[in-house]
Amino acid sequence: MTLLFNIQLHKTEQKRRKNKIFMILYYFMFIFMDIKYIQMKYSMAQVETLTGIKAHTLRIWERRYSFLKPMRTKTNIRYYSDEQLCKLLNVSILVRNSYRISKIDKMTDEEINSLVGEILTTNNEDKTDEVNILILSMLELDEESFDKIFKRQLLTKGLFSAITELIYPFLRRVGILWRTKKLIPAQEHFISNLIRQKIIAAIEALPVPPTDAPSIILFLLEEEYHEIGLLLTSFIAKDLGWRVFYLGQNVPRENIAQVHEITDSDLMMTILIAPKSTKVNQSIKYILDTTSIPLLISGNPESIKIIEPNDRIVHVSSPKELIIYLNDTRNKLK
């Protein structure tokens, strides 16, 4: 019996070592691989969402001009590469700034990039172009481009505008990439960490609200890890004079009632991003049963749809709605 156990243990250890070696080799292969060779495929619907160019227009350009040649699957469905998506993002900027597509078709990539750079250095009130450049910087891991756009908005409009008018629309646009796994982990982590750094710096620069200010608990439920939206909420709330108790990601539901009891907060808020099962309703019901304050919920509409209705749940679909609700609640608490 002991011999049989030792043989089985030896086999398990061999398998564990083999898996470990495989993971190490995979890790180094990924590190030393140029990510530009990791090609993603984007459907026409995804390209339309990311660039703002209508599917009908894409089909016309494909027939009339040489710069756009999508690939096709075995079943003849169009798809676009990373390179084509990046070019279309730049083309959409030029078209919105009155350049004729027939002229753009004759330009080299260098000419297109140069013109886009000139457009972005002017005082452009439309943030669509800047959001496109942020998407490009994410796909190409270009921190310098991201930083230039963010700092320009910061200097001209201030922190609040940079967060609500630039970062928030950017996150909504790239949400389609996160949900459909069209970003490699390196791209997702790269852009997430850049944004986190900017938002945390902005939060720390705000004055600390007085102890008698209204307060809000911010948290993500268990198995929720995308906290950019929650950080944005923290910035907005603190900027409006709220005390923020930021719990972060993957918080056990039992902790919420404990924090509420300690802080005697006025509101609590969570954001749903990951696809949800019935477990989320169980967690929300538990939180509502063990607390007595309103729960604000925002995030992915598909996740929010499954939430069971409750009088204490407040759905928030945009920063503007959040600002209005926080201001109204603060006035009522005075």
Write the layout of secondary structure elements.
Layout lengths: L1 H31 L11 H8 L3 H10 L6 E2 L5 E2 L2 H15 L4 H4 L4 H13 L6 H12 L3 H15 L1 H21 L5 H21 L9 E5 L8 H12 L3 E6 L4 H11 L3 E6 L5 H12 L5 E5 L1 H4 L8 E3 L3 H15 L1
Parallel strand pairs: 3-4, 3-5, 5-6, 6-7
Antiparallel strand pairs: 1-2
Helicity, as a percent range: 55-70%
What is the count of DSSP helices, taking H or I runs of 4+ residues?
15
CATH C-level category of the largest domain:
Mainly Alpha
Question: Which spans of ≥5 residues are poorly predicted at pLDDT below 50?
Answer: 1-13, 15-38
Q: Write down the CATH topology of the largest domain.
A: Multidrug-efflux Transporter Regulator, Chain: A, Domain 2
Average pLDDT reading:
80
Strand order of the largest sheet: 4-3-5-6-7
| Total number of distinct structural domains | 2
CATH architecture label of the largest domain: Orthogonal Bundle
Structural class: alpha/beta
